[in-house]
Amino acid sequence: MKVLVVGGGGREHALAWKIGLSPRVQQVFVAPGNAGTAIDATNVDIAATDKPAIIAFAKSNQIDLVVVGPEAPLVDGLVDDLEEAGILTFGPSAEAAELEGSKVFCKNLLHTANIPTAGFQAFRRGEDASRYIKDRYPEPSEPVPVVVKADGLAAGKGVIVCDSREEALDAIERICGDREFGDAGNELIIEEKLIGQEASVLAITDGETIVTLPAAQDHKPAYDGDKGPNTGGMGAYCPTPIVDEEMMQKVEEEVLVPIVHAMKRARKPFKGVLYAGLMLTPAGPKVLEFNVRFGDPECQPLLMRLKTDLFDILEAAANGKLSELEPLEWDDRPSLCVVMASEGYPASYEKGRVITGLEAADAIEDVKVFHAGTTMDGGKVVNDGGRVLGVTAMGDNINLAKLQAYKAVKEIRWQGAWCRKDISDKAR
């Protein structure tokens, strides 16, 4: 079998690596890939958004399965076009991907399906959103516990958590006035700020059967102690003790099953990865957002632990045969991913800085360094994005997994490299 993975981040490196371990898979291509996928697979110089070129490549190379990694090509309808061309593809249709592509659509669907989530208001104009804040919180000094979200895709950065009126009005201005997130800010949502710990529960579905994966915990804020601006994710670990069996059953019954049914009723049947971003509140789990693909960096520790053949899972989902699959097998050991980022991320950063120590890090037991924002320049690996590497490790317990991951991090160097030092500390 030949597989094409679409995308070039850490998630796609992890997918290509794991799919390549299948005895059924002869070759894995990645479009466009990065310096890491060039080692574990074969890179193809095609942008993830270049639909005609991806379809032409899949046809001419007789690709048996296409796996679409990032959200942008999913929302843009790449799966629809590939399937129309007769190419088996794993991922949701453009209509189903609206679950991530529009927060307004998602929140309205959650409300209609009676799935627990924060109360919200949607706005098309910044002036109306600002007036809402001023009317609801007339005292400038009073707390304003809200979250302001750009409606569309913003690479995980279009969510601004606020505690004061000044912060809320500034967030509205950034989204609607400054257009910091471009067209993603054509609409925005203001929702109540939920209190609790966050968890990520991912499931693979073919629209009928749902296979839930072990819960993970992402670290969105840039700095230690969950301080600083939101990022695409600075690290994750799996499993997370805050989601026990009872909580997982509650998530399946109150979130995952209802959303699959709701999408079917909306005539947007969902197949692919359903990623529920949850806040575990005193009143129970509530949905913060849905993503329609493997999380990055959650994908990396999840796939490190997966023992079942990933190709078998994705092929079964794409063919609507998940019900025929045996229960998934997992390594009992926890895993942890530490994201190493470029200086300045999540704001502007310099590219082209030479990275050293990768081989020494990869040589450490139970460690795999997944590349995200890297490329080759003159035979050397250089940084080419904000989140550059996902240093992932396993251990007999979460403390040992953390020890291995940070031992590998210490081996890697480039000018301005940094990471959070507290990934998984919440698990203690």
TrEMBL record:
Its cofactor is Mg(2+); Mn(2+). It is an enzyme of class 6 (ligase). InterPro entries: ATP-grasp, ATP_grasp_subdomain_1, PreATP-grasp_dom_sf, PRibGlycinamid_synth_ATP-grasp, PRibGlycinamide_synth, PRibGlycinamide_synth_C-dom, PRibGlycinamide_synth_C_sf, PRibGlycinamide_synth_CS. Its EC number is 6.3.4.13. One of its GO terms (molecular function) is ATP binding. GO terms for biological process: 'de novo' IMP biosynthetic process; purine nucleobase biosynthetic process. Residues 107-319 form the ATP-grasp domain. Keywords: ATP-binding, Ligase, Manganese, Metal-binding, Nucleotide-binding, Purine biosynthesis. Pathway: Purine metabolism; IMP biosynthesis via de novo pathway; N(1)-(5-phospho-D-ribosyl)glycinamide from 5-phospho-alpha-D-ribose 1-diphosphate: step 2/2. It catalyses: 5-phospho-beta-D-ribosylamine + glycine + ATP = N(1)-(5-phospho-beta-D-ribosyl)glycinamide + ADP + phosphate + H(+). It holds the Pfam family GARS_A. Belongs to the GARS family. This is Phosphoribosylamine--glycine ligase. It comes from Rubripirellula obstinata.
